[in-house]
Amino acid sequence: MCTLEKRGNIYILTLTGDDEHRLNPTLLDSITAALHRIRSETTTTPSALITTAHGKYFSNGYDLAWAQSDPTRHILMSSKLRSLVRDLISLPMPTIAAVTGHASAGGFILAQAHDYVLMRKDRGFIYMSELDIKLVVPDWFVKLLKNKIGSPAALRDVVLRAEKVTAEVAVEKGIIYSAHDSSEETVAAAVKVAEELVKRKWDGEVYGRNRRVLYGDVLPALECDETVEDVKHANIGPSRL
């Protein structure tokens, strides 16, 4: 689950508890509900969103154990994550992920769906695990990553080497915005970035529309997930999630 706190014009969304924050429908619905609340409260006042998490993990990706008992659950998880990313892309304010633990696969994608990614450097890594667990990366994952990682070599290492990237290396590769000494300092730095952005007094709707233009190739890709099409049409186990 998650909590939502408002500090002035800054919203802080926290994935709660000390587990892996696996992206099952319960957690995805909780985050989406928080975003809908933010959207409903946002008027003309400039605001910003920070997403962070308790414990060792930011998010360890899809809840594959939950989905094993019913192949159609993979479809549901994919649909809900795609909807959540669509909401983040259209949110009328700057967004910042304060990654205070491991962010793997779908959890890494959730972080990268924010405008800025800050990480702690004393513990944790970002990691696209699909190669190591014999799964194919969805096309929409790759399109989002191409918009966030400018270096082809860095993108190759993330997707085709399944590299576990620490915060300092991620800064060097241009994958994240900045690295910080601890969980607390990462969140504090995210608040500072949010405060600086809020001071610009940008029109939130214009900001959101510009982001949608920037991610113009990502939005159509969010309409489907080809890695679960075999489940949808054949009702068999997902071979390419």
TrEMBL record:
<keyword id="KW-0443">Lipid metabolism</keyword>
<dbReference type="InterPro" id="IPR029045">
    <property type="entry name" value="ClpP/crotonase-like_dom_sf"/>
</dbReference>
<dbReference type="GO" id="GO:0004165">
    <property type="term" value="F:delta(3)-delta(2)-enoyl-CoA isomerase activity"/>
</dbReference>
<dbReference type="InterPro" id="IPR001753">
    <property type="entry name" value="Enoyl-CoA_hydra/iso"/>
</dbReference>
<dbReference type="Pfam" id="PF00378">
    <property type="entry name" value="ECH_1"/>
</dbReference>
<keyword id="KW-0413">Isomerase</keyword>
<comment type="similarity">
    <text>Belongs to the enoyl-CoA hydratase/isomerase family.</text>
</comment>
<comment type="pathway">
    <text>Lipid metabolism; fatty acid beta-oxidation.</text>
</comment>
<protein>
    <recommendedName>
        <fullName>Delta(3)-Delta(2)-enoyl-CoA isomerase</fullName>
        <ecNumber>5.3.3.8</ecNumber>
    </recommendedName>
</protein>
<dbReference type="GO" id="GO:0006635">
    <property type="term" value="P:fatty acid beta-oxidation"/>
</dbReference>
